[in-house]
Specification:
Blueprint lengths: L5 E7 L3 H12 L6 E7 L6 H8 L4 E4 L5 H15 L4 E6 L2 E3 L3 H10 L4 E10 L2 E7 L2 E3 L5 E3 L14 E2 L7 E5 H7 L11 H11 L3 E12 L10 H17 L4 H20 L7 H16 L8
Helix pairs in contact: 1-2, 7-8, 7-9, 8-9
Length: 300
């Protein structure tokens, strides 16, 4: 009997060298029954030609419309299911995999049929022993955070463990989960979409598991990472969308509103936060767009 088929979905936007490096690490993995799909988001850096030349076994889908991280990756998820994938691995183009990463993930996933979503240990690329995410948790007040973020790996998580959500830079999802709960919610466009996907899976009875022995390194976020005002917009709007979609309790809504109003006040009246005015405006816009039910890409 053949081992389960894994199909990896990679979204590329003008990151030719990163994507080529990722594909190289992917095809060097020890897990054999594996295919890759690259979704190219109108790149202008020669990505498509370079990928097809260096890795002709890779299916490249050239996207016609930018539907964000969620909507774009859904095109790849659909294609992966059409190929007969048993597991779909949604992977950022700016990551690199350890040679046994896929093998470790699938081994744990196949050990328990109730496991529906898995993720590797994510390290900072520029600090290879520093943890970026050991899976995510959500508090009773619906505040989300990464376990062990910015901690040196000293064996804090020696074995696979249940979590609430998995970092979207590398998330392995069982076919049956997607067939039951659906794909990423394209309304989110970007930010919180992977968290909400995991919440849907858990609500349907699936386990979400972090696998420490499966390792990747992610370039896109560093310890001193300072997100743009766009992130503030999506984080604000989409947090409220997630609360609404999953019928969060009143205390979670109350805390969310207190936090955004307190932050808006500080960014508006305190001189030391003058540099945060673009973030203040983005937060206001995110609130208004949630109330208007305006989803997808942030309006210019």
């Amino acid at each position: 009997m053949d081992p389960p088929q894994v199909v990896t979905v990679i979204l590329n936007t003008n990151h030719r060298e990163d994507t080529l490096g990722l594909l190289d690490s992917l095809y060097k993995n020890s897990y054999a029954n594996h295919r890759a799909i690259v979704l190219d988001n109108a790149s202008q850096d020669g990505s498509v030609a370079a990928i097809r030349s260096a890795f002709p076994q890779t299916q490249v889908i050239e996207l016609e419309h930018n539907l964000g991280y969620a909507g774009n990756n859904n095109a790849g998820v659909r294609a992966a299911l059409d190929l007969g994938a048993d597991w779909v691995f949604v992977l950022n183009e700016d990551t690199l995999l350890a040679p046994d990463c896929l093998e470790e993930l699938v081994r744990v996933g196949e050990s328990d049929l109730q496991i529906g979503v898995l993720g590797p240990m994510v390290y900072h690329y520029d600090e290879p022993g520093m943890i970026q995410s050991a899976g995510g948790k959500i508090s009773k007040n619906w505040q989300a955070w990464h376990l062990a973020q910015n901690e040196a790996d000293q064996g804090q998580y020696p074995v696979p463990h249940s979590v609430d959500w998995i970092s979207g830079c590398a998330i392995l999802v069982r076919r049956a989960v997607i067939e039951q709960v659906g794909m990423l919610d394209a309304r989110f466009f970007y930010y919180f979409e992977e968290t909400e996907w995991c919440l849907r899976a858990r609500s349907a009875g699936w386990l979400v598991v972090h696998v420490p022995r499966a390792r990747i390194w992610h370039k896109g976020v560093q310890r001193d990472y300072r997100p743009s005002s766009n992130v503030t917009y999506y984080k604000t709007r989409n947090h409220f969308l997630m609360l609404s979609k999953h019928q969060a309790p009143p205390r979670a809504w109350l805390l969310a509103w207190i936090q955004v109003l307190r932050t808006l006040t500080s960014w508006s009246v305190k001189p030391k936060w003058r540099s945060m005015r673009p973030h203040r405006d983005a937060m206001w816009q995110g609130i208004l767009d949630f109330l208007r039910r305006r989803w997808g890409k942030r309006p210019v």
